[in-house]
Amino acid sequence: MEIATNINLAPGAAAEPTATMVDQVIEQFIDSESVPESVEDSLPDNDVDERMAPTYDEAFPPLAGKAAVGGMAAPYSRVAGRGRPTGTSRIKTSTITVLFHISRLELQPGDHTNIVKTVSAQTGTSIEISKSRDGSVTVMVTGKAANVSDAKVRLQKDLQTNATATISIPKEHHKNIIGKNRSKIEQIQKDTGTQITIPPQGKNDDNIKIEGSKEGIEKAMFDLRRISDDQYARHRDSVIISRKFYPWIKGGRKNDKLEELQKETGCRINVPPYQAENEEIIVTGEKDKVIACIDLLQKKSKEMEENFSHIQVEIRQTQHMYIKRGNGIQDIFEKTSVWVEIPSDGSSTIRLYGLEDSLSPALSLLFEKANSIKTCDVECPAWLLKYVIGKNGENIRSLSEKFPKTTINCQSEKNIITVDAPAEEYDAARAEITKLVDELIQTRSRAVIKIDHKIHKHLIGKAGSNINKIKSDTGVNIKIPQEEGQEIEIVGPPDGVAKAREMLLEQAKRIENEASVELKIEQKWHRLLIGTKGESIQKIRVKYPEVQVSFPTASSKAPDCDKVSLRGPRKDVEEVSNMLKKQLNVIVDENFTMKVPILKNHHRYIIGKGGVNIRKVKEETNTRIDLPSENADSDLIVITGKKADVDLARKKLLAIQSELEDIYEEEIHIDPKLHNTLIGAKGRIIRSIIDESGSVQVRFPSADNPSEKVSIRGEKADVLKAKEKLLSMAHEKELESYCVEIPAKADYHRFLIGKKGANVQKLKKEFGVNYAFPRSDDKDQDTITIMGRREQVEKAAANLRESIKELENTAEDEIQIDGEYFKKVTSRSTIDQMTSELGGIKIVPRPSSNTIKISGPKSCVEEFKNKMEVMIDDLMAQVEIQVEISRQHHRDIIGPQGHNVRRLTATHNVQISFPPQQDRKKNQDNGHLQNGGTPEVSETTEDAAAEQDAPVETAPDPLDIIKVVGRPENCEEARLALLDLIPISVEVEIPFEYHRMLIGKSGENIKSVMDEFDVNVQVPGTTLKSNVVIVRGHKQKVEECKTKLEADCKKWDDEKEDRLLRSYSLNLTVDHRHHSKIIGRRGAVINKIKDEHKVQIRMPDRNSSGSDQDVITIVGYEKDAVAARDSIMKIVSELEERVTDTVEIDSRIHARLIGQRGKNIRKIMEKFGVDIKFSGGETGNTVSIEGNEANVEECKEHLLELAEEMMDTLMEKIQLEAEEAQYTRPRQPQPGFFVRDAPWQHGQQQQQQPPPQVAPDTSDLTAFPGLGSASAPRASTGTWGGNKQWR
Fold it and tell me: 909: phi > 0 → left, psi -120 to 50 → alpha, else beta; which?
């Protein structure tokens, strides 16, 4: 068997391969897939050629230092030899070696072996560590340069004790240290093996904390100082300069002056856009240069302020666009050094800034550009504009191609087309558009017709079929409005428009003549009306084709499910309606239904033997009889047919039941008023009585029958039992439902009930009875019913009669009212309120004599007089005060839907009136300059200016006055209450980062705060990044809201601090081989650690490589993260103590050891507390055992014992099969193993050449018996021998 490989040697290298090369070749061979599955596969089918066989010395090389057989030195063996060649290898390696020293004081205590192993495995380096007498440690790391550097950082981090240092770096440099996405700080931490903690952004702290080894800390501090020093070299400052000087600072369109200034000063200058509100110019660079640059900018600004002038001109706004077109403003600036400012607020005033000598030529250029375009309006009806535009803008596109500098704007609201064109195109473009409009007016016509909106959908038709047919026949466009009240528009050729108009009016007239009828037919009859496969309804549709008959769908809900719609010509609709009604009457008459109660156990007698009885009844009565199923609880038999036939069938069925000897029937008398009570809701009570009594039927009279007879039928014992229960229950209900009716005039009812039912509720509690007053739709309005137990009802009736007697004691009186107050106290609202409060009283005002006549119950009359005296007293003491409150607060004072005002008027018994709503806009800017003019200065200007400082008394604005009318003390209280309602605004300091929490998801939080405190909370926009939140509302509510927001802010601070504490991250390096054990089965172990320590643990990605695949990240509180780390390290230490041993077990019995779905091997692993892994493949005999050393040994012995038993069984099976095979087919001889120059062949070299050797048959169990088995075959009781079986 050959091993083919390529070994590249450096020039001059020895021809003999080195031992290292041979090792590599053997490893390639072992790892390759070309290894034969068995020895037999590697042998040829025929006899072995002896010349190809290895010599004895090659196959069995001597040990080192011993001579080979025959006294000759053993040659180098390609397969088994490990001797070193005499030549020297010239293959070079790219490895380096680094030494570093760790003192005793810096060295962490404990065993460092595991750390060294882990780092060596993770970095792919060779690490040697030696300890001196003084306790210090010297570490030598060998490997590739990058790996050595990484290993050194890791070892320093893990072997050295951590030190802590603090360095002060200015706060503004922290962001440069962190870098984009924390890239810089993470790189520094990785290079130095340290942990760098930078204070949070909101904390005013310059100190940066560094934790790690001493060497790493020094290197990290050097890197941080270097970054800070780089930032010290840069400086940033700003200067405020008016935006009108920006063009001269920046230069033309290429900003050439700004670039020159930046080169001159060596600074970077950021000038905001001209339109920006901010006028701050920012300068960045070295501090001295920045200061000099700012001085230069201020100097230039001051010079321009002194030398520049400005003028303003009025140019129509529509011409501004021609000035701005292209780079018009920049062109004027480059030619004249004058800047043109065009307003953006719609004003027509344009300002020019520059040197006085340059303003005149700039003004000429300005007018030249403004007048470069001429404008005209061509009249065109709005409906014609779309034809002017053309299909897909075809006409406008052709005009634009013909006149490329012309702008055409169609304005439908003004019925014009605006044309903007340069002088050379103006006349031709205007003539072309005018010609197009004139041609369209001659070839297009428009008509509008007004048709009832209700029939528009019928004009359109299904899917637009009707209207599309008219369009195609006439070639017009018809627009039917969707909203009611609009007209139908027809546009197209004049002939087509006239024809379409006529067709639409004709259709509308025909549709108006149509009628629509809805018949109410119960849904259960629809199927019978339609007929089998729609035969009945189809006949109607054939006879009346223009009538549309629509039945509701089966899924329709009430009341639509009973509506059958008819639509068509009025006469036909009436005939179809009558026809359907006649058919319905016949169907209803023939489908009368009656339910007959027959005892369930008697149904078989009703049916009869073979159904003879029920069939006979059906034939004799011409009815349909349906019995309930055997499993149904109902005992009702349903009979359907004509009413007379149904009655006859019912009698026959009852006669069959009466003929049975065990049927007993009895009638009892129960008051009809108790029938519904005894039946109960949905028949629950009567069903319970029937179930308790046995097999009986109880029949109550129908609702329209006032009979007292209740029929009970069934077996005699059950009937008597049901009778007793019904009578007993009726007696109890009768006692509880004793009623007394007391006559009382309807005028007294209101007084007897009391305000909001107070009087009657009091009587109910006192006597324990119910009162029933007549409803508005009752015929008898003068009867009050009292219900309850007899003795209680009688007491309540006596009390009610006494109250009625008092009310019947009527009286009449007359009150004299002062004429000044008569109208107020006799207003309609006041009289209605008094009549409502005092039941049964009659009030008649007499304006001629200023008197009021009252008649009614004496108590009511007296109460009315008292109320009137109080009312007049209030009117006499009534005053009016004015409260001045700015009109902007009136809406807040009134409150939503006047809630606040209604509360104040009710609480303080006053009337409050606000000024009427008016248009409060006033023209306050009377000095506004029009058309660019300058204001005229009056001779008295100086005098007026001198008088401005003098105090001026102004009258209050009437729109700010709120009037309060009532008693003086009430008005004063109301005034104070109104002032308290004036909203105030308070600023609350809430950090910008908390604004999203204040607002909440979709604004839920801030809405709830505003609703809770009835205030308005204004949060600044995100672009402002302001910390000030404004709360506006009533003083008390605002203070409460402020307190709430401050408390929330404090809570968010605590949560933020808690989040920071909870986001502590700890990285733990653990060999990735142990990760599966840390995770556990289905995450059981890691989830337990998470739940126990309340942390988050992130395992590395499976696809990660290098050092990242060993890093486990723990996030949580620091103490919890440390505790979780200790728990994980405890598991790791236990895993590190585990040993791994291997045992060779024939792969043929692996499946037996594993068992079905791993059942056997799982038991073994649980028993010994180890992990067992089998090598894959048919030839993989290695079994790995991992666990505690003692347990591994015990498990190993146990596995070997099991394997030995299984191998015995297997070999017995193989032996039996071999014996059977000898009798079935001849066995082909297999070549054996040959060697040349063996010791036993030396004496035969001179003799005659012997015949070819034949290799022994190794499958012959007699010559080569198996281990653990007898030399001769033995009988077995089964295929596998003995009683052993595979499981």
Answer: left
d(CA 1079, CA 453): 74
Q: pLDDT (tens digit, 9 = 90+) per residue, 288-326?
A: 888 889 898 888 888 888 888 888 888 877 777 777 776
CA distances (Å), 503 to each of 443, 515, 546, 756, in order?
Answer: 21, 21, 19, 66
Helix axis angle, 758-767 relative to 746-753, nearest 10°?
70
- DSSP H helices in 201-272: 214-232, 246-250, 256-265
Residue with tokens 């001797």: 83
Nearest to 1228 by CA among 40, 36, 50: 40
List all residues 6 or more positions away from 780 whose beta carbon is below 8 Å from its beta carbon: 774
CA pair distance 963, 975, nearest whole angstrom = 9
pLDDT digits (tens, 9 = 90+) for 886-897: 888 888 888 877
Q: C-alpha distances in angstroms, 925 versus 244, 349, 921, 955, 1097?
A: 25, 17, 12, 21, 70
* Exposed / middle / buried, residue 1139 (Cβ in 10 Å: 0-12, 13-18, 19+): middle
Please name which of 447, 445, 443, 403 lies closest in space to residue 426, comparing C-alpha atoms: 403
CA–CA separation, 208 and 221 (whole Å) = 10
Specify the residue for token string 């052993």.
Answer: 1284
pTM over 0.70: no
| CA–CA distance, 771 with 804 (Å, rounded to integer) | 15
Task: Note if the bond before 559 is cis, omega within 30 degrees.
Answer: yes
Q: 488-497 burial string, b = 16+ CB within 10 Å, else e? A: bebbbeeebb
Angle between helices 858-876 and 828-837 (to 10 degrees): 140
Alpha-carbon span 1273 to 1118, nearest angstrom: 73
Model confidence pLDDT, tens digit, residues 1072-1125: 877 888 888 778 888 988 888 888 998 888 777 766 788 889 998 888 888 988
Assess contact for 1187 and 1171: CB atoms under 8 A: yes
DSSP per position, 636-702: EEEEEE-HHHHHHHHHHHHHHHHTSTT-EEEEEE--GGGHHHHH-GGGHHHHHHHHHH-SEEEEPPP
Of the candidates 742, 818, 826, the one whose C-alpha atom is nearest the C-alpha of residue 784 is 742
Buried b (16+ CB within 10 A) or exposed e, 128-162: ebeeeeeeebebebbbbeebbbbbbbbbbbbbbeb
CB neighbour burial string for 87-121, b if at least 16 within 10 angstroms, e if fewer: eeeeeeeeeeeeeeebeeebbeeeebeebbebbbe
Q: How far apart are CA 366 and CA 352, in angstroms?
A: 9
363/57 Cα distance (integer angstroms): 115
* Total length of the chain: 1287
The β-bridge partners of 964 are 881, 912
Centroid of chain to Cα 1057:
28
C-alpha distances (whole Å) from 558 to each of 12, 234, 520, 553, 564 are 106, 82, 11, 11, 13
Q: Please report which helix (H) or strand (E) contains residue 455, including its range.
A: none
DSSP string, 133-175: TTS-EEEEEEE-HHHHHHHHHHHHHHHBPPEEEEEE--GGGHH
Helices and strands, counts by H and E, the chain: 48, 45
Q: Kind and range of the H or E element at 587?
A: helix 570-590
Angle at the Cα of 755 (from 752 to 757), degrees rounded to 5?
65
For 1024, the enclosing helix (H) or strand (E) is none
